[in-house]
């Protein structure tokens, strides 16, 4: 099946972002995409100072638009971090998924908050405004089961391993790595998660805006279960496409059967929630 990643240029005007995102979703559908993913923070600038101002409840304006365009195009739509979600007085970094009938199939709240300090380069603390999610998020399609993470979640290998154990063959991470962590780890982490779990891994970033307070790395990417980069964007706004070949995935798992060779008598990993 064909996967499309929309690397959107995000402005400060929510309505413009929504309109342009939906237009690109329609374009991707017209080119045969069955699963379409938007980037982290696609409808607002990324930054702790913006989260409260742009926050919405779910369902709300942004998720309603995503539901409508998913139904119109009869696709599976991964809504990036569609919005900072407000719920019960707390804010969450939330990704919603909609099916071809417009129904919401999953709602992933970012589990690991991006609190880092690299002297002389970048300091960022999502926990100043956001609360963490407390659950894994998977959804079924006629093609395969898909696991979801958001940006920083990709650094935690255990999460991807759980998804692999639960039968996911594609992991999608809307993300917004920056100009420090992007060149260092963006592709490396994707290839590691793909090889370790013999799955496809897709990451979808906002386009780079040098004038923004937080500058995203861009380079939305798809990696196959052999660890090969099979599609990659530059820094500009674009849509990239790739065909997810589940036959190839099965062949790789047969050739190097790590899933059946795990020593469960010596070690294990469990999902607690």
From TrEMBL:
Keywords: Hydrolase
Ranges of residues in domain CN hydrolase: 1-246
GO molecular function annotation: omega-amidase activity
Gene Ontology terms describing biological process: asparagine metabolic process; glutamine metabolic process; oxaloacetate metabolic process
Pfam families from the UniProt entry: CN_hydrolase
InterPro entries: C-N_Hydrolase, C-N_Hydrolase_sf, Nit1/2_C-N_Hydrolase
UniProt-listed Enzyme Commission number(s): 3.5.1.3
Reactions catalysed: 2-oxosuccinamate + H2O = oxaloacetate + NH4(+); 2-oxoglutaramate + H2O = 2-oxoglutarate + NH4(+)
A GO CC annotation given for this chain: mitochondrion
Superkingdom per UniProt: Eukaryota
Matching PANTHER family: NITRILASE-RELATED, OMEGA-AMIDASE NIT2
Family: Belongs to the carbon-nitrogen hydrolase superfamily. NIT1/NIT2 family.
Protein name, entry field: omega-amidase
């Amino acid at each position: 099946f064909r996967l499309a990643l929309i690397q959107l240029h995000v402005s400060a005007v929510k309505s413009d972002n929504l309109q342009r995102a939906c237009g690109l979703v329609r374009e991707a559908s017209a080119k045969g995409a069955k699963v379409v993913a938007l980037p982290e923070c696609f409808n607002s600038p990324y930054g702790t100072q913006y989260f409260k101002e742009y926050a919405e409840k779910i369902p709300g304006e942004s998720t309603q638009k995503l539901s409508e365009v998913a139904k119109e195009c009869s696709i599976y739509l991964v809504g990036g971090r569609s919005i900072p979600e407000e719920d019960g007085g707390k804010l969450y970094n939330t990704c919603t998924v909609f099916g071809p009938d417009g129904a919401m199939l999953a709602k992933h709240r970012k589990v690991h908050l991006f609190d880092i300090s690299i002297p002389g380069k970048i300091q960022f603390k999502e926990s100043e405004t956001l609360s963490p999610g407390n659950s894994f998020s998977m959804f079924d399609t006629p093609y395969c089961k898909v696991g979801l993470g958001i940006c920083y979640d990709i650094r935690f290998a255990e999460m991807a391993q759980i998804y692999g154990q639960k039968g996911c063959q594609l992991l999608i991470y809307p993300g917004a790595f920056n100009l420090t962590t992007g060149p260092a780890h963006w592709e490396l982490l994707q290839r590691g998660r793909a090889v370790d779990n013999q799955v496809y891994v897709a990451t979808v970033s906002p386009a780079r805006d040098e004038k923004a307070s937080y500058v995203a790395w861009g380079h939305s990417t798809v990696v196959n279960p052999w660890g090969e980069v099979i599609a990659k964007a530059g820094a500009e706004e674009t849509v990239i496409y790739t065909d997810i070949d589940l036959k190839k995935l099965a062949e790789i798992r047969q050739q190097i059967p790590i899933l059946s060779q795990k020593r469960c008598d010596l070690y294990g990993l469990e999902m607690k929630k």
